[in-house]
Amino acid sequence: MPLPSPFPPSNSTPGAGHVQLTLLLPSHPVFSAFSFSYPLKLIRSTPHTVPIPNPTTTKATTPTPTPPATVTEVPLLFLLTYGGGLVSGDHIRLTLALAPGTRLAIATQGSTKIYRPPPASTSTTSSAVVTTKQDITARVEAGAALWLAPDACCPFKGSRYAQRQVFEVDMGRRGRGEEGGSLGVLDWVLEGRGARGEKWECESWRGGNEVWDISASGAHEGENTEEKEQEEEKKKRKKKKLILRDNIILAGDNIRSKVDGLAVFGTLILVGPLLAGLAAFFVEEFGLLERIGARDWGDGKGGTDTGILSAGAEEEEKERREKWRKRRQAREKKDGVLWTAASIRGAVVVKFGAREVEGARNWLGAMLREEGTVGREFGPGGLTCVK
Prior knowledge:
By secondary structure, the protein is α/β, with parallel strands linked by helices. The chain contains five helices and 20 strands. The protein has helices at residues 226-238, 276-287, 311-335, 357-371, 373-378, and strands spanning 16-24, 28-36, 40-49, 56-57, 63-64, 73-81, 85-86, 91-98, 103-107, 112-114, 132-140, 145-148, 153-155, 160-169, 182-190, 204-213, 241-251, 264-271, 338-344, 347-354. Helix 3 packs antiparallel against helix 4. The relative contact order is 0.12.
């Protein structure tokens, strides 16, 4: 007869995690909820301090105060699994909730490895097909920002994996001048363990990303009573609108023959005002790539936001950007990087691939560092995936 356990029974779900970030007035973010269970592990790291713009000065040399940033710090969260990967049958379920005005950066400390299932037992005539799963659901309120940029997923030979990520973003109410929420998501997958000669030998890899706009088309006037707030919340859920649904399915026989020699595929999704500059940067740089017949289809502006630079400084910046662009494009050809960018219903989607993972990492890192929004607004931790 087994001995009774001295520990109280646990009601936690294996692989479940919940993170809720709220803003402690006036501008300090705190985790009001933070939980996880094996095999999921969440680690909080050093937060990034948001730079506050310097006050501007008028012609009369009277200082004009600049409104402070919504938050003073951006927490960095590492999403880990025990053993550095997921075994057959693991199911990660992570929910995120970002209150208005908060920001959160999420990264990993390495690629997420997807292990193959154990060989079928000879004592049974049939065995159920077990798929490793990961589900992430995030709610980003107005004025909040989420940057989710893990390292690439690495499915081993014979592995089966399915991932679904659903993001609900309050893009701001019309007519009220509210700043909408912002979202940046990087989702990429490798061919496998290249050092062991694996090239797309997983049984299946399925990934799905959805972005929903949960902002209400109208709002109540007058006092914000509890009843009206609840009614408004119900309207939000009923009127949420699909902005983007993106799926990648790698399955079937001989996946290698369908990928045209590429070793990595990736998707970058950018939504919201905080990442609008980065989104425009990708679209503009894509417009300046060489086209069939070597004709320049760009507008000649070079995609450089010079702001209030003087004429001389503006010319120097354009010249510097043009030199950087030529170096980057030469590196793209050398590394076999292919990419595209498109604007879809207020979101920008970037698709990319490369012959080697380092080529993709170098290209993405060059783009993010040159534009600068991620490092400035989310800190160095937001660039962990391209180091």
